[in-house]
TrEMBL record:
Reaction equations catalysed: (sulfur carrier)-H + L-cysteine = (sulfur carrier)-SH + L-alanine
Main EC class the enzyme belongs to: transferase
Keywords: Pyridoxal phosphate, Transferase
Family that this chain belongs to: Belongs to the class-V pyridoxal-phosphate-dependent aminotransferase family. Csd subfamily.
Protein's organism: Plantibacter flavus
Protein's recorded name: Cysteine desulfurase
Stored Pfam families: Aminotran_5 (PF00266)
GO biological process, one term: cysteine metabolic process
GO molecular function, one term: cysteine desulfurase activity
Domain of life: Bacteria
Entry cofactors: pyridoxal 5'-phosphate
EC number(s) given by UniProt: 2.8.1.7
Function comment: Catalyzes the removal of elemental sulfur and selenium atoms from L-cysteine, L-cystine, L-selenocysteine, and L-selenocystine to produce L-alanine.
Length: 435
């Protein structure tokens, strides 16, 4: 009998490699308030390398035209670039290009899914859409961790269809309570929507367990992968979910571009959400017939230059290696969590140090509002996120109105992490808060 060869863990990027990568990001050379910029807000929006900036400029300069619409050479070139881009980004998550729908971002993608299911529930889509139809007695399950973009569309869908919205709770540290799943997920569950990585706690969801529960009751799974696709290797076949969404601006790409991935049989069965040009086969004054996915969900003018720039971002990430990106950020996540946990007055939100997490950490500092904490950092050139991070229910559960979040990426250095931690030790004394 032969043993299965072990796979060596990925090696994090060393500081020399990171220094070389940083040369590709012009904005990182800026000074803020007389200090070198320490950018620790990549969980909100990542910075862009020169390759991505140039890709969008080059398209606008040399190939700009309406895709899928013109018979002239310029339009043909633009269309070919646009569809090559789809193939590149789809391959990045292990998907077939026919399963990748362009959207303006993850928020639009989640609204697309919920809206299309709402249309099916209203009787559109014929027999093929029957499995998506919701009504009174049906249940949609989310978690208490969700970003508003993966909560409000489901609230709206429940209100339109009469379905019930339920949620998986978190504990006092903001960690998902798996002991509650049997009380929440059952035979009436039709949809389970959850984040792959929490944008507040950095916790990585137990995807395989939740998918197994969904399969047991015949529910669809929708994965918000905004904080995972940019930061760790993602393969849709391995994950086993039915739908997945992500945004370009969080993965070195531009604003205004994101994607919905869905199983092809499901996408082809869903009725369209937005309608108009480019997504039809035949239109009469009384009705229309629609193209198969992905075009049936891409009505109107498409974000061509943004998609091309996103493909450039994907190639940049592939050249670095997503396994190494993940290894680097996992180490930073532990460095952040361990450093924050020992600072007097600081409460770390989410899993404790030593528990796997993404490269981000949020905290509360007793006696100092998060906005004041953020201003203290900003005065020193350190950019962090403050507020409820579009996750008010989670903050309310933890008894907080706001928190402070530091989030890293492949261009973050150990020195920046340490500068942030050192500055955190100074916040309380600066505001006269005794420990």
């Amino acid at each position: 009998m032969t043993s299965t060869p072990s796979i060596a863990p990925a090696v994090p990027l060393d500081q020399a490699e990171i220094a070389a990568l940083r040369e590709r990001f012009p904005i990182l050379a800026r000074e803020m308030n007389g200090h070198p910029l320490v950018y620790l807000d990549s969980g909100a929006t990542s910075q862009r390398p020169i390759e991505v900036i140039d890709a969008e400029h080059d398209y606008a300069t040399h190939q700009n035209a309406a895709v899928h619409r013109g018979a002239h050479l310029l339009a043909a070139e633009a269309t070919e670039l646009f569809e090559d881009t789809r193939a590149t980004v789809a391959a990045f998550i292990g998907a077939d290009e026919r399963e990748l729908v362009w959207t303006s971002g993850a928020t639009a993608a989640l609204n697309l899914i919920a809206g299309a299911i709402g249309n099916a529930s209203a009787g559109l889509g014929g027999a093929a859409a029957e499995r998506f139809r919701l009504g009174p007695g049906d249940e949609i399950v989310v978690t208490e961790l969700e970003h508003h973009a993966n909560l409000i569309p489901w609230q709206q869908l429940a209100a339109r269809t009469g379905a019930t919205l339920r949620h998986l709770p978190v504990d006092d540290h903001g960690v998902l309570r798996l002991d509650a799943v049997d009380d929440i997920i059952g035979e009436r569950t039709r949809i389970i929507a959850f984040a792959h990585v929490s944008n507040v706690t950095g916790a990585i969801a137990p995807v395989s367990e939740l998918v197994a529960l969904a399969e047991r009751v015949g529910a669809l799974t929708v994965l918000d992968a905004c904080q995972s696709v940019p930061h760790l290797p993602v393969d849709v076949a391995s994950l086993g979910v039915d739908f997945l969404v992500f945004s370009g601006h969080k993965m070195l790409g531009p604003n205004g571009i994101g994607a919905l991935w869905g199983r092809r049989r499901l996408l082809d069965a869903l009725p369209p959400f937005l309608t108009g040009g480019s997504m039809i086969t035949t239109v009469t004054i009384d009705g229309a017939e629609f193209l198969p996915a992905p075009q049936r969900f891409e009505a109107g003018t498409q974000p061509v230059s943004q998609a091309i720039a996103l493909a450039s971002a994907v190639r940049f990430l592939q050249a670095v290696g997503m396994d190494r990106v993940h290894a680097t950020e996992a180490a930073y996540g532990q460095r952040l969590a361990a450093g924050l946990a020992v600072i007097p007055g600081v409460t770390l939100i989410g899993p404790p140090p030593g528990t796997p997490r993404a490269g981000l950490a949020s905290f509360d500092l007793a006696g100092v509002h998060a906005h004041d904490v953020g201003q203290f950092f900003d005065d020193r050139g350190i950019a962090v996120r403050v507020g409820h991070h579009c996750a008010q229910p989670l903050h309310r559960r933890l008894g907080l109105t706001a928190s402070t979040r530091a989030s890293s990426y492949l261009y973050t250095t150990e020195a920046e992490i340490d500068a942030f931690l050192e500055a955190t030790t100074l916040v309380g004394p600066f505001f006269g808060v005794s420990r």
